Amino acid sequence: MESTMTRNLKVRFDSQIALCSALGVTATMTAATHQAEAFDYVYYQPNGSAGWVVPNTVDGLYVNVETRVSGTTGFSVPGWDVDVYTQSSQLSFYRSATSGAFYMKYSAGDPNGTVGNLSVGTTVGASSSFSSTDINVAFFGPSAGQWKTNSANYFGFSFLGADSGRHYGWMRLDVGADYTIRTIKEVGYSTVIDQSVQIGTVPEPSTVIMGLLASGVTGVIAWRRKRKTA
Predict the structure, then answer these.
(1) Among 18, 44, 134, 229, which is least packed, fewest CB within 10 Å?
(2) Is 28 inside a domain boundary?
């Protein structure tokens, strides 16, 4: 039997959806897409729950964070930001001057060229410590900040967006029995230049709906103004 609180929450949620519909706004949140967008933040699960499998090759997988395109060559992913691959029997991360990406270290004292395995809730932003090298590696071990097999690992990064501004984001990279088995399962990033993000952030449905409502209200106002001037 539903509690009074549960029923009230459902009524509030249903009323928000109804208002979206009245404004001509459609909110789609399905298990197939697994994505949500707030005012200034985007979160998605590539290929639904399947994720992007990273090949155990020297090229690995290139990803354009904003367009959500991935491929096994840089040429196949215009404007790629992140490249996860294998080099010298190590899980590696590549950046280039054109990609503009930088990978976050676990701490400022960590060697340059390392990528930290970060805790959920860690802030990724301008004050974070990023590696400045093109080739970066993930070290596995039991210590904090080291990567773990048979686990979900999180890393932070910055990249140049389509607006040419600096943006911050994070990815969840699941690693299997060894470093050669890995899949990108989650992606989150800020759409606002220089705005920090927290690893693992997933927009709540109410936040997404309020964003849709704001978009719908703006659209209705613009439509009414157009009708008045016609």
Answers:
(1) 229
(2) no
Element (H, E) at 205: helix 205-229
**Residues 73-129: pLDDT tens digits?**
999 999 999 999 999 999 999 998 888 999 999 999 999 999 999 999 999 999 999
User: Is residue 70 one of the residues assigned to a domain?
Assistant: yes
220's enclosing H/E stretch is: helix 205-229
**Boundaries of domain holding 78:** 45-198
Q: Which amino acid is at 129?
A: S
Split into its structural domains, the chain has a count of 1
- Using the 8-state DSSP alphabet, how is residue 7 labeled? H
- The answer as to whether 30 is a domain residue is no
Confidence of residue 16 (pLDDT cuts 50, 70, 90): very low
Check: CB of residue 212 under 8 Å from CB of residue 27.
yes
